[in-house]
Design a protein that fits this description.
- The complex is a heterotrimer, with 2 copies of chain A (183 residues) and 1 copy of chain B (258 residues).
- Chain A is of the alpha+beta class and 183 residues long.
- Chain A contains 8 helices and 6 strands.
- The longest helix of chain A is centred in the first third of the chain and has 13 residues, at 7-19.
- Chain A starts with 6 loop residues before the first helix and ends in an 11-residue tail after the last helix.
- In chain B, helix 3 packs antiparallel against helix 4 (69-86) and helix 8 crosses helix 9.
- The radius of gyration of chain B is 34 Å and the shape is elongated.
- With 258 residues, chain B is α+β, with helices and mostly antiparallel strands.
- In chain B, 53% of the residues lie in helices and 9% in strands.
- Chain B contains 9 helices and 7 strands; from the N terminus they run αββααααβααβααβββ.
- Classes of the chains: A alpha+beta (183), B alpha+beta (258).
- Chains in contact: A-B, A-C, B-C.
- Chains A and B meet through strand 3, helix 4 and helix 6 of A and helix 1, helix 2, helix 4 and helix 5 of B.
């Protein structure tokens, strides 16, 4: 990138990139469009402030940022609403478990719900790009884990998993509660 | 079974029993517990156990019991639990019963909580419903380039496809992880044959590691074992100047060290 | 429309509508979203002024208006990716085999796939920098091997090749090849 970019130019570059992307953009990717050593965080903050009162707002979603229309303007778009297929209860609950307990294994999901995860459930959530594979768990068998994505956060208007209410409460209830039949 | 289960029949469908709309025994128990209208921590397990068993009895003809193992396991636990609650003659057993009671209550609380959270999540403002993304990405001045869109799932599915097609498990990790002893010995043999000078142990390890890509310490272990074998055969002799110094090997010819 | 909209609210509505439309919007259509008798021209003018110095500008196109990225930022979009394409089945399968069996030779890939691998397929994956040459195999002819790159891991958000789920795990998850038909 040219080194001649001043603060305002850099803001404009980020702005233009955000305005022309329907998906959230990784901050690390955005940084590639700026000179090295630039404090992108301060640019994001400035832009966030600027758009706070406007018709589109700048949102943080995990490690990404995105421009989205202000929520209070949803009435303007009523006509645009597309009837979305609703997810099964199993898929909704599985999603909630991943969000609250990530990284979480399939077995853990099954333990919480008390039923096996039907085939297709994980597939659907993967296709939506709301969950992805995480690191393998350091437990016997080293099972794969699932975690939520920036896209999930974006979709549900969350800026980080910490925005979920009652995470601590749920963690206190424990994840690895032993199975009853071990007694 | 729902359609998606049917769809994947050939891939060993996960056991999925829907009992009159209930998704598993925990789901049924939770519903029954909620009817008690008490704090889940203060469950009336006796009553709950009766309700659960009654329910199963009612449903007896509506589903095949042999498919409902989970429900039966739960039923037997509840029965045991209840019997121990009624006749707590043995202190130890009473403790067990309390523990099971507590665990069950905990699991129900957790499921109840996750359910609340799932509802909370889907009640939130949602993209394409309450707020919208940009559609401005069709600017004509933008220089167009091909953009590759591949998801990890595509790659994984491709792999499952190959394995399915061949109808056998492709052995994982064809990459050699271990230096087998016979290979180690033949390597040593080859090195000794081509060299009249002393050969150092580390150099052998280094070379086979570089050649095979097998972890260095595994190479060291195999080469060491190979050297012991080879020495036993009387083909070489091993020398070490002092403790912890470098191990060297020499060819033995006509009973004499070269 | 509510009559309580103040000047700023009206600007925000227009802003949000322009943001979500790829096509220029007719001023007469935009007007329908505002209270009657509002001077939409003055709102457009205010917005136009506001965006004059920003990364996107408000443009008039005949009787319509649209938001467009500022012309001087063209260079930013050099890397902008537009046309979506996907990998061929051969490439997906080859990539999967390299990921699961690395380091692996071309012959081994062909054995596993049951068909020969065109050099074009390897080239595509090499160009993407998703696979690279590995060590030569200790077998007759000492053939070259292929292995996956950090770039591959990075693209698919994996921290190590071990994080890839195994075949049994994949099947347990119901990730079925049947679904490939959709792609």
């Amino acid at each position: 990138m040219e080194l001649s970019l001043n603060q305002q130019d850099m803001e404009r570059v980020i702005e233009a990139l955000l305005f022309t992307s329907s998906e959230p953009l990784l901050i690390t990717d955005l940084k590639k469009n700026l000179p090295q050593n630039v404090d992108i965080e301060s640019i994001i903050e400035t832009l966030q402030k600027h758009y706070e009162t406007r018709g589109v707002n700048l949102k943080r979603v995990g490690n990404s940022i995105a421009l989205r229309t202000a929520k209070d303007l949803d009435h303007v778009f009523v006509k645009k609403m597309v009837a979305k297929k609703t997810l099964s209860r199993a898929a909704r609950e599985t999603l909630a478990i991943v969000a609250y307990h990530q990284p979480v294994t399939k077995l853990e999901i099954e333990e919480i719900r008390g039923v096996s995860v039907g085939s297709g459930t994980i597939d659907i959530l993967m296709d939506l790009e709301w969950i992805k594979f995480g690191r393998r768990k350091l437990s016997p068998g080293r099972p794969v884990t699932f975690q939520i994505t920036d896209k999930f956060l974006d979709y549900f208007d969350l800026s980080s998993p910490e925005d979920l209410p009652g995470v601590k409460e749920l963690k206190d209830l424990g994840l690895s509660v032993k199975k009853l039949n071990r007694y | 079974m729902d359609q998606s289960t049917e769809y994947h029949k050939d891939i060993k469908p996960a056991l999925y029993v829907s009992l009159d709309g209930f998704e598993g025994p925990l789901d049924l128990l939770l519903t029954l517990a909620k009817n008690q209208k008490v704090d889940l921590k203060k469950l009336q397990l006796g009553i709950l156990a009766d309700q659960f068993l009654d329910y199963l009895r009612d449903q007896r003809y509506k589903f095949k019991l042999e498919f409902a193992g989970d429900y039966l396991v739960m039923a037997s636990w509840l029965t045991l639990l209840k019997s121990q609650l009624i006749i707590p003659d043995d202190e130890l057993k009473k403790e067990d019963a309390d523990k099971i009671n507590e665990l069950l209550a905990l699991r129900l609380q957790r499921l109840a909580k996750i359910r609340e959270n799932a509802i909370w999540l889907f009640d939130r403002p949602q993209l394409f419903r309450n707020f919208f993304p940009s559609s401005l990405n069709r600017d004509e001045r933008v220089i167009k380039e091909d953009f590759l869109k591949v998801q990890l799932a595509d790659i994984l599915k491709a792999y499952v496809g190959i394995v399915d097609k061949k109808n056998y498990e492709v052995p994982m990790g064809t990459k050699e992880e271990y230096l087998f002893l016979d290979k180690a010995i033949s390597f040593i043999e080859q090195k000794v044959k081509g060299s009249e000078a002393l050969i150092s142990f580390p150099s052998l390890v280094k070379e086979i590691h570089a050649l095979s890509g097998i972890e260095a310490k595994r190479c060291a272990a195999s080469i060491f074992c190979g050297l012991l074998e080879y020495t036993k055969l009387g083909k070489i002799q091993m020398k070490q100047g002092s403790a912890f110094s470098i191990l060297e090997l020499a060819k033995v010819r006509n009973g004499n060290t070269v």
